[in-house]
Amino acid sequence: MRDYRRQDGETLYWPLGPFKVRLPFIHYRFEWPDYLQGLLMCAVDLAAIPLMTELLGMPFEAALAVVMLNGLLYLAHHLLGDPVVPGWITPAIPLLMAYCQTFPEGPERIHALIAFQLLLGVFCIGLGATGLSRRVVNVVPPAIKAGIIMGAGIAAVSTVFEAGGRFESFPWTISIAIGIAFYLIFSRHFAVLKNRNAFWSTLGKLGIFPIIALAIMIAPIFSEAPWPTIEWGFSKPDFATLWNEYTVFGLGLPSPGMFLQAIPTMLAAYIVLFGDVLQGKALLHEADDARQDEKIDYDADRAHMIFGGRNATMSILGPDVAMCGPLWAAMHVVIVERFKAGRKAMDSIFGGAGSFRWGTNTGLLLMPIVSLVEPILGVALALTLLIQGYVSVRIGILEARSQRDLGIAGVIAAVLAVQGATWAFAVGVALCLLIYGRHFFRGENDHTFSKDTDDTSGR
């Protein structure tokens, strides 16, 4: 079997400035289980369509064109050296929708979205190119880091269970699907089964794939969705309508005033996005500890340039309500958990993340798959939100270094979920100043967690 490792332990690549180019079969082993997951998990990508039709009045086919463009840009992360499964800026979606709804539907609202996303993209590229993003990650106090990540998780879960949320439409399907998903991904009991039995091991490698397949059958049985009507051929995105009626090509650039108005919302969205960067870094650190055979190089500056470039590109080619984020937490944790199972399960983290995103792009092209998952798009979105919520709260708590950090983080998380990121950040800064004073950036370490002590005995 071919060895895709360099002598220093990294997966093979071609250097390109700050980027590390990796292509399937040349630089990493293609992982078929993750590719198969991607075929059905394109359902979550498609779940962005209702958001755009609702906010912008965009036809289904034009919104599908946006999803497909975004799907192609997802590939940029692993192809350029960022070892993550990228996704939306999910917790910031309600914030952006509320902002855009302050403008009348039509060209003005579309210009507001374009201005916001272009500004966000340029801002992130600037942070990455100058190296300031790494300083931002390191300078933010642990209590604020913990609160932002926890708050993002709480907001994600709240979106599912709020009045009129997706749980009301699919109560039985979501309950059964998420229960099985948590068992397959996080259960210690299932981890033991995987080591003892080849069938359970194979099932575990498929991640969320069997859960989505099960949801397609459960939802109609409980009368929560119709049975899918399979259509054949290839999907038909409407790029002409998209570019003529919803982009700068047909509407022109937003006014300077639009960009000025978008600044506060952009900064608030970046705070949430920043939480995803921290979360991705923490998950990859866990993976690096578990697998000594592969050296994982995660660079926050490089990540900023990639997802910043995605946002800037989409603002021109197809403004996207879901935005272009650095991490799809739910699927990234699935990939990481399989990666941690050993080299036989997954040779490289780039193979897992990359194969999955090649799979989602294939799924978006195939009308049989699009029509198969269309009835349960709400379930797919709920699954990713709930898994992200679980992971975000766990990672957020571990970012805290003391009991005071935990208290501050809890308040920040609650404010973020209720009032949004801007208020949460302001409250976090105020509490850290009041409680830590001149130790604002460092906080304190009272050895609340065993990870912060030299004693590994568990006492």
Entry summary:
The chain is mainly α. Helix content is 67%, strand content 1%. A two-stranded antiparallel ribbon has the order 1-2.
Distance between the termini: 44 Å
Largest sheet: 2 strands, antiparallel
The share of residues in helices is: 55-70%
Q: Count the domains.
A: 1
3D structure, described in words:
The protein contains 22 helices and two strands. It is 67% helix and 1% strand. It has one domain. It has helices at 32-46, 48-56, 60-79, 93-100, 107-130, 132-139, 142-161, 166-169, 171-186, 188-196, 198-205, 209-221, 239-245, 248-251, 256-290, 300-317, 329-339, 349-365, 367-373, 377-399, 403-419, 421-436, and strands at 14-16, 19-21. The chain is mainly α. A two-stranded antiparallel sheet has the order 1-2. Helix 1 crosses helix 12, helix 1 packs across helix 20 and helix 5 (107-130) packs across helix 15 (256-290).
